[in-house]
Amino acid sequence: MAHSLGGLGKRGPGPRVRFDLMPYLFILPAVVIYVVFNLGPVLASFFFSFFKWDLLAPTTEFAGFDHYDFILNDDRFWGALSHNFIFLGLAVVIPVSIGLLLAVFIYEIRRGRVFFRAALFLPAIFSGVVIAYVWKWIYHPFAGVLNPALELVGLGAFTQSWLGDHKIALYSTFIAYTWASFGYSMVIFLAGLQDISTDIFDAARVDGANFRQKLFRITIPCLYDVFTFVITLRIFTAMGVFGVIYILTGGGPFYSSDVIDIYVFRMIGNFEMGWATAAATVNAIIVVCLSTGFIKWREWRSWSS
Predict the structure, then answer these.
(1) Which run of H or E residues covers position 62?
(2) Separation of CA 65 from chain center
(3) pTM of the complete model
(4) Distance between CA 146 and CA 33 in Å, rounded?
(5) Which three-class secondary structure state does DSSP give residue 162?
(6) Contacts of 1 (CB under 8 A, 6+ apart)
(7) Burial classification of residue 193, based on how many CB atoms lie within 10 Å of its CB (0-12 exposed, 13-18 middle, 19 or more buried)
């Protein structure tokens, strides 16, 4: 008995924590690809922004913050950045609102849901180059379809050079961007709607709630996290827009539709890699600050409410 009690008083070795390497091996290829093709170029861009390098010379010369000083005093850089902010302000309102309303429409209908979902998402599956050339043909002042369509319905006074007028060129490109991007927001909102309990909508329908009341008192509050993701995605795409604007206007006329990525591309074409990488780095810092600040603000709102 004493021997048994003595045995109970002894503690054996604790449980061994077994480190399983297999899950990390599965994600290793994805991590390597991300580091080489995403994180690597970002770090290289930041590094070369401090050197004078024209892409052709085998040597580089340390320039310090000269490139940053140049672009921060360049009016064209600030003009391009202001156009990105205009794009951003419109992108977080118009494509997101269209995507939300279309998602609600598809969610409410009983027949043809699959057809409408596929048809409305169809523009999003095309590449930006295809979309840009389609809209370039639509906007063409002579061979396009927009101006003749306006004349056909008695709105000939509104016909104009949509891509040649410096006052509206940026907004004309934004319409093409909206047509290509609202489908992503629609699909994401539709997925979020399917996670909301149907009992909530049924109870609101029994209580006599109309469409506006259900939208603002049930749908939008229940899609709080979805809105955060969608708007963050818009921040990245609006601050990095390139293909649609480059093909439609090339940043013109007179730099009226210039954006940061086109500004960077123009610097690369002039073999000014230091200026180009400095501008790209500043834009990346702005994107990170905007997205992080927005997410933190949304989290603060959720905690305070």
Answers:
(1) strand 61-62
(2) 29
(3) 0.85
(4) 44
(5) coil
(6) none
(7) buried
Burial label for 299, CB within 10 Å (0-12, 13-18, 19+), is: exposed
Token match 């309102």: residue?
93
Domain residue spans of the chain: 2-48, 69-304
| Structural tokens at position 136 | 């370039």
Decide: 131 and 123 in contact? Cβ < 8 Å: yes
How many other CB atoms are found less than 10 A from the CB of residue 250?
15
Q: What band does 106 get if pLDDT is binned at 50, 70 and 90?
A: very high
Superfamily of structural domain 69-304: MetI-like (1.10.3720.10)
* Of residues 198, 190, 146, the one with CA closest to residue 172: 146
The candidate with the shortest Cα–Cα distance to 267, out of 34, 70, 11, 23, is 70
Which SS3 state, helix, strand or coil, does residue 111 take? coil
Nearest to 201 by CA among 222, 218, 225, 226: 218
pLDDT tens string 135-144:
999 999 888 8
Residues 6+ apart with CB under 8 A from 18: none
Distances 104 to 205, 208, 230 between C-alpha atoms, Å: 15, 18, 15
Which DSSP symbol is given to 63?
Answer: -
> What are the tens digits of pLDDT across the range 37-80?
888 888 888 888 998 887 777 667 888 899 999 999 999 999 99
